Amino acid sequence: MDLIIIGLLGGLITGISPCILPVLPVIFLTGGAQSASYEGEAVPAKRSRPYFVIAGLVLSFTLVTLAGSLLLGLLNLPQDIIRWVGIAVLVVIGVGLIVPRFQHILERPFQRFGQREVKNRGNGFGVGLALGAVFVPCAGPVLAAIIVAGSTGQIGVGTVLLTVSFAIGVAVPLLVFALAGRSVIERIRAFRTKERALRIAAGVAMIALAVGLVFNVPQALQRLLPDYTAPLQEQIADSEQVQDALDLGGLVNDENKDLDKCTNGATELESCGTAPSIKGIQQWLNTPDGEAIDLKDLRGQVVLIDFWAYSCINCQRSIPHVVAWDETYRDAGLQVIGVHSPEYAFEKDPGNVAAGARDFGIEYPVALDNTLSTWTNYRNRYWPAHYLIDAEGTVRHISFGEGNYAATEAMIRELLQDADPDVELPAATDVKDETPEVGATTRETFLGSSKDVNYGGGDEYRRGDGSFRFPEDQPDDSFALDGDWTVDTQYVTPAGDDDGRIRLHYRAAEVRMVVAGSGEVVVRDADGNAQTIRIDGTPRSYGLLEQDDIAKGTFTLEVPAGVEVYSFTFG
């Protein structure tokens, strides 16, 4: 019941947000647009037409959001193909509304089913199906949870209930507009006598929407309008009850049902059930001929599973400890397995991961968990995360995030001695723990629209092209843009030929940025001192600052066209 209420509430908030504005003209007009008979005359639309339009939208939006990524992954098709198909269908339907003869040509293949069934007679279900494929509302916490569940392939009853209730919540305000369109057309005589004009207007609106979607006009429109639903979205996101209900990454199954018996960061061994299997791996690195590893074949050995991502600053500080444990205890019976679970799309590339592993000195096996299947099977939510498994295959310790290294190593030694009482263990490792104090540094800052964090500009920050200006009073621990920029889901890049500027207020001893493309980025500090960083190739992490103590500072980056800036990390 909680999932249904949360889904409906999240959908209703989205349904009244600026995100729906681009589709409102189409819904308003098609809710009462007339159909065309085979004689070319206008036929009054059925009173049920608005309901069919919205029903089609709910169905296609639900299927695309919930299972779209999963299906396209299985078919090995581009992730945006559904969107382009929806745009094409909108154009076709729009042309059909404007040119009745064209609509008849499209319907000819279906005439064998009987003319009565072919005549639209006001049924707008097809229109709704096309709208649902292209209608992507603001990604609030409810939709984000649904997308994660869909992309990881973990679609259960709870996920379906949440998705359907969210879609219904979005549909309620849209249905009001569709019914309003029908009512206006029925009540105003001028509209009733101009059926042909209404059909043309609806067709033009559809084609205009399709063209706008191609050029990301809806995103530009949304940036111009204040998001008056933001406080409501924040209330949902900050609610502990909602966070628990939306924890779809923690879906429980027979393999992982006992993992919650482990306490995060415990200082003593616990017993948390048999280790879940490693599944859904695209490729293995550092194994003979790329062979897969089955945990069942490792019985008798102590296993440490490390979930990581190569551009994650937290992982970069943690990996030296894992590498040291592997080198120190490998001959004593420890098997380390790195499960690379990407945050970014570029982290799914095997070449990028292999290069990152080499840079960190990783020689132990690495599994490319690009679909987050193993991540989900371990109910994981963190980078990094360590799962310690004894020689019998039982999970004995879990540690999320950085730190707790001394306790984890002590338990590794204890399990190795339990597995082989005669083992002679070498001295404990001596890797400095560089975990920053909680809240001492600026939090990791993402610049993509799907995960933007710490934006301190005065404008709305949304996907698409836009012009930005530095604010007069920029908050601490934030970034702002200046110039013409293209904001993508995962990065920003200058939109024109001129350089764009980024101003970063930070609090850290170390500052790094994840950047890709080709060009020279000029970085200036508050005193005007400049350094030039040459960027060339796939996304990787570049150092901007390294000092002994945490301190406040400001960088202004001059970014040329052709360079993509993904994130800033702080230590």
Key attributes of the depicted protein:
single chain, six-stranded mixed beta sheet, 571 residues, alpha+beta, globular, 18 helices, seven-stranded antiparallel beta sheet
Could you please describe the fold and organization of this structure?
The chain is globular. Strands 9, 10, 11, 12, 13, 14 and 15 form a 7-stranded antiparallel β-sheet that branches. With 571 residues, it is an alpha+beta fold. It is built from 18 helices and 15 strands. Mean pLDDT is 78; it is low at 34-42 and 113-122. Helix 4 (81-98) packs across helix 5 (100-107). Strand 7 and strand 8 form a beta hairpin.
* Helical stretch tally: 18
| Shape label | globular
Number of strands: 15
Distance between the termini: 42 Å
Q: How would you name the oligomeric state of the polypeptide chains in this document?
A: single chain
Strand content: 15-25%
Radius of gyration: 27 Å
Low-pLDDT sequence parts: 34-42, 113-122
Helix % is 25-40%
Structural class call reads alpha+beta
Q: Mean pLDDT score, rounded?
A: 78
Largest sheet: 7 strands, antiparallel
In brief, what are we looking at here?
With 571 residues, the chain is of the alpha+beta class. 39% of the residues lie in helices and 21% in strands.
